[in-house]
Every structure is written in structure tokens, then in C-alpha cells.
UniProtKB/TrEMBL annotation:
The keyword Transmembrane helix applies. The chain crosses the membrane at residues 80-99. Keywords: Membrane, Transmembrane, Transmembrane helix. This is Zinc ribbon domain-containing protein. The lineage of its organism: Bacteria, Pseudomonadati, Bacteroidota, Chitinophagia, Chitinophagales.
Amino acid sequence: MNYLKCNSCGHQNAVKSVYLTFCGHCAKKLTGSFVEWQQQYPGQDFETYLRMIVEKEQEEEHNEAGWITNQWKRHKGNKWLIASALVIILLITGGTLFGKRAVLTLFYSSAPQSWLYTSWETVVIGRQALEISSPLHLRINDHTLPADLAERAEYVKCYSSSDNSGFRIEVNMYSYWKHVSNSLEEAAGGVLNEIKSTSGVSALEYKSCPALQAGNPGLLMEGEYLYKDAIRLAFRNLIIVKGPHRWLVSITYREDDKIGEKVAIRVLKSIRLR
């Protein structure tokens, strides 16, 4: 996917068609749109335009990396001083696209390939038991519930992965009071609203398909989004509903993490309702 950055708000707009002209976040006119570019290069097609966007991004990243390399060459005798200065610059520029990418990449590391071959831990969650296997230890992560959920739910149990890597698993189990509606459609809408309302999330894309679990209605949601205009994250969510009970398994990882994708699929396939 190619993106066009808005010079007004910094939002990364997915370039899906020739008609992209205004920013999807602030509605201001974009610089470098296909229509504007075609006026400079008449007769050129959309595919050529997309290649130009990729080449421009690579050139900008190369220039940034080249500047750092040049500083090392010019100040060989003051490496510690330059190293300290570069760290400070990186922190100061955390608000820029380059700075954000560098910082967030540290927090969202890729899943190690060893997870595909090592033995996994299997846990049983909640009194309406769900069994799940994971390469990460899942620990109890109960927290204070929002007032509206506390009034509707009789029982809630939350587990999450204890590792601070870029691959994250969260399992939530809810038992609602009998008078409270608990449909698969409501659950899916709630999950989407939570993702959309998360600070820093934009350019959300997703798809969903039915996923029966032991004869109970379920829904598998897969997608990705841009986080803080710097890194693309992928997610796979499995929602299961059985009477007043609801289970939500959420897995998040870097969009370019192919090992993480395989691990996520294997985790979801391990789920069993007891």
C-alpha cells in the first residue's frame, strides 16, 4: 500500500485511486496528488505515479540515513559526543515521521522464528472455560471496568501476554446479565469502535468472516491500521458468543512481520471452548 502524507496535519493517506485529492483526516488539499502530478507529467499513468511515491519515500529515508553517516565521518575523534547528540536528536524528532518510526520500531519488534518450533503454554481462561495455546505466558490482567460495562456484566476475566514485544495477545471473557443483549453484531461493532477510538489509530482496513466454534456463532476479524502515522500494525480478532457469554481474543503485531502472522494463525487455531 502506498501513502501520501498531508503537509497540514501529517496524516498518511492511502493512495487507492486517482481521485485522492483531499486529506481524509483534516480535509485539506493534498500536495502531490495524482491530478496535480499529471499536470507536470501529462500522458503518464497511475502505476507510474505510484512508483514515483515509493521512490520519493526511499530517497527521503536514504537522505536521513546518509546525514547520520556523514556526521560520523566528519567527527571520528568525538564519537561519544556525536553518539550522545544523535540520541538527543532522535528523542527531539520523535514527533517527526523518521523519529516515530525509529522509536516505535524498538517497541514493536518482530516475533522470533523460534516460536514456530518451541513448545507452547496452554491455559484455560474463565469459568466458562476457553482453552488457548501461546508462545507467550498469559497472565491475569483484570482492571477496573467502565461504568456501563460494570452494570451489564455479571462476570469479567482478562488475560494478556506478559512479554513486552511487538507481538501481543489479549483474551477477554464476559458473562452478561440475562436481560442484557449479547449478539455477535453488537460485539463486532464494539471491537471496531474501540480500535477506531484508540489514540493514534488511522487508515483502518479490515475484513471479517464467520468462524463457528463448537457450534457457537463466531466472527474472525482481520485487518491493519496506521499507528501514530509511523508504523502499520496488523490485528486478528476472534469473537465468540454463547448465550449471555462472550469471548474476545485479540492479537496485534507488525504488519510486515510474517512470522508474527503465522504465530497468530496458530494461536487462533488452538482455541477450544470447554
